[in-house]
Design goal:
The chain has seven helices and five strands; from the N terminus they run H-E-H-H-E-H-H-E-H-E-E-H. By secondary structure, the chain is α+β, with helices and mostly antiparallel strands. It has two domains: 2-64 and 105-149, Ribosomal protein L17 (50s Ribosomal Protein L17, Chain: A, Alpha-Beta Complex), CATH 3.90.1030.10; 164-202. Strands 1-5-4 form a three-stranded antiparallel sheet. A two-stranded antiparallel sheet has the order 2-3. Helix 2 (15-40) runs antiparallel to helix 3 (44-58). It is elongated, with a radius of gyration of 32 Å.
């Protein structure tokens, strides 16, 4: 589940599972930040220890880039293995094109350390959020929640007033006409009163 979260940015699961998974994911992100900080400080041994601990907790798996998923599905098994591993048997990690290959696989650990962790370099904790969903799971009616990485959520965009419907426009036009007609009835009386006022003075 943690691997799926790092791959997609958010997952939907039951509320108890989301609550159990959240501290585990926070620990993995903290380890990734530790790997980066020790590597930047020149402590290669400490960085390697933290990376081994990360592998021990989460293991690793390959991710096919979303843009090339359709191409990967149409490949033969031999072509798929070429995009996953080098000729030496070592797994591709970065997801970049290599040689004649248009794309290669990316490891979950590489994405966590190189892509996700830098987002939280200035953050002390709280890398995820749980959003309870109104829907329930079909079958056992369990409460569902979305576990989401912070910083990767989509912006709702500019908040603007929705366009008026034809019915709303007609209603507004009738309302404006009614107000104008009421104001029109009161105006002649005022004009007569003002017209009569100078005559009374004379």
């Amino acid at each position: 589940m943690a691997q799926n979260l790092f791959e997609h940015g958010r997952i939907t699961t039951t509320v108890p599972k989301a609550k159990d998974l959240r501290p585990f994911v926070e620990r993995l992100v903290s380890l990734a930040l530790k790997i980066r900080s020790r590597r930047d400080n020149g402590d290669t041994a400490g960085s390697l220890r933290a990376r081994r601990q990360l592998h021990k907790l989460m293991t690793d798996r390959s991710i096919i880039p979303a843009a090339h998923q359709d191409d990967y599905d149409l490949m033969s098994n031999a072509a798929r293995s070429k995009t996953m591993r080098m000729a030496s048997g070592r797994r591709f990690r970065t997801g970049e094109p290599r040689g004649r290959l248009a794309f290669t696989a990316e490891s979950v650990t590489h994405r966590l350390v190189e892509t996700i962790a830098p987002r939280y370099a200035d953050r002390a904790g709280g890398y995820t959020r749980i959003i309870r969903l109104a829907t329930r799971r079909v079958g056992d009616s369990s409460k569902l929640a979305m576990l989401q990485l912070l910083g990767g959520e989509e912006s709702p965009g500019a908040i603007t007033k929705p366009a008026k419907t034809a019915r709303k426009k007609r209603t507004d036009a009738r309302y404006a006409f009614a107000i104008a007609s009421l104001k029109g009835k009161g105006k002649p009386a005022k004009k007569q009163a003002t017209a009569n006022a100078p005559e009374e003075k004379e």
